[in-house]
Write a structure and sequence with these properties.
Order of helices and strands: HEHEHEEEEHEEEEEEEHHH
Bound molecules: flavin-adenine dinucleotide
Low-confidence stretches: 257-269
Radius of gyration: 21 Å
Distance between the termini: 18 Å
Mean pLDDT: 83
Strand content: 15-25%
Length: about 280
């Protein structure tokens, strides 16, 4: 979401997209939708295509708790489980903590409202899939699109293409073994993971998904924020010092993304709020 909006802001500043240079966004996940809404709010004609029949397909049927700032420590906003945080750039979609399907439902309503209001600049087409490699020539991008139902293929030419197809399918099999998929409902936070006796657990991989599963198993579903609060409640000084250091680090990061220091974020260098 942050990367996609930063990309649109940069592409717009660089003149790659404008009122006369349209954009094709591939994938109606949270990145693609955020990018498309931001571009359209700047008057850039935007077509968003999605191969499934709903937006936010990944989160739409998952009861998994999602949390946008869980891994942002040491940024000062990490204690606020929502984006945009009070110290960050505004975003086209708000991202609160909650069950994935509920968050997705809220996003879907916002997208529908936005497309109804801005139908002259934004169009969303479902069951349309980008196939093959787009070809860039003479300042345009030629893409091949397949209608998922009829299997018909056709070409589209745009000034700019933003590929937001996500990470794709998870592969979690080792021989005959397969674990839970990240978005699947699981019982990782239950006692003994919901099994009759205590299992031995292997978490393979060290990315945010693995870290989240580890924390949910070890702390019975408690979030890092809850754990942090519990440990540091009595230690105000430590907390304040941590805030100071993290504030500086975060400010540097924000400066790199927005080109401005926090507080000046509403300027033209930051993605503006969509109408
Ligand atoms: C293991 C794991 C753990 C994660 N943990 C977290 C977490 O704790 N918190 C968090 O916020 N996020 C987490 N994520 C990441 C989460 O998937 C992303 O935050 C979010 O879904 C990324 O959004 P996206 O729009 O980039 O991609 P996606 O949500 O994957 O959206 C991409 C969209 O593109 C569509 N698409 C794909 N190919 C085509 C095509 N050829 N043509 C048209 N459409 C296409 C797909 O159908 C999909 O709707 C995790 C992901 C994984 C895999």
């Amino acid at each position: 979401m942050l990367r996609a909006t930063a990309l649109v802001a940069r592409a717009s500043r660089a003149g790659l997209i404008s009122h006369s240079k349209n954009m094709l966004v591939v994938g109606a996940g949270v990145a693609g939708v955020s990018a498309a809404m931001l571009a359209a709010s700047q008057g850039i004609r935007t077509l968003l295509i999605e191969k499934e029949d709903v937006p936010f397909f990944r989160q739409a049927s998952s009861q998994r708790e999602i949390d946008p700032t869980e891994f942002d420590w040491p940024a000062p906003h990490w204690m606020e489980p929502s984006i945009p945080a009070s110290d960050s750039c505004p975003m086209p979609l708000p991202f609160p903590r909650g069950p994935a399907a509920e968050v997705a439902q809220g996003w879907r309503k916002l997208l529908r409202k936005f497309t109804d209001k801005n139908s002259e600049v934004i169009q969303v087409q479902f069951l349309k899939e980008l196939v093959g490699l787009p070809v860039s020539e003479n300042g345009t991008v030629r893409s091949r699109i397949r209608d998922v139902e009829s299997r018909d293929e056709y070409e589209r030419t745009n000034s700019f293409l933003l590929d937001c197809r996500g990470a794709g399918e998870e592969r979690i099999s080792i021989g005959d073994f397969s674990g839970f998929q990240f978005w699947e409902d699981d019982r990782l936070a239950d006692r003994n993971l919901g099994l009759s006796s205590a299992p031995r657990v292997l978490i393979s991989g060290g990315s945010d998904g693995a870290l989240q599963d580890f924390l949910r198993i070890v702390f019975a579903g408690k979030t890092p924020r809850e754990i942090y609060r519990r440990f540091f409640r009595a230690s105000e000084v430590l907390h304040r010092n941590a805030g100071l250091v993290s504030g500086r680090l975060y400010e540097t990061g924000l400066h790199m993304v927005c080109g401005r220091r926090p507080g000046l974020c509403e300027s033209e260098t930051c993605p503006p709020r969509p109408c």
